Fold:
Amino acid sequence: MHKSLVHFDQQNAIQFVTFRTQASIAYYLDNYIIQTDQSTSKQQQHVDKILDNTAEGAILNGELINLLINFFKSKDNLDYKLIAVSIMPNHIHILFQQLIPLPSIMHHIKGASANLINKHNAQTGALWDKSYFDKAIKDDKQFQITYQYIKNNAYKANLADADKRFYGIYENECNNNVEV
Structure:
């Protein structure tokens, strides 16, 4: 059973969003029991721990890393103000200030990036799982923790190309115009 997540959507909200390849989610659903007696947060941690350590759906590697980072940067100030993004092998973490409704942002991101990836890989078909996990950032402390999580995610996973998988405005530009 695939449960829909409740999403918080508010103009100018700072959002932390994670979305995964469809193949990685299918692998999890086929091989693991979802603990319905756990909080949503604990369930997400359980899913993340397993999926961060599986090769299923892990297609976001090599040239695709730079293509995707450039793609996310190209949407800056159109759909959102990009703050940080981490391209993991089978999922993406992105932190942004939304400029349009969150469902529209996610529709644009997932549709256009799937087309980009499919074109690069000379393939067709669904790429991303339909759902996504989002968390609205409420204060500066939560913002700092989230930013550092995204920044260090590939290093924590011991990925050899970790230094290529992250983009953040505080490391890469003098663009600090985002307020929490």
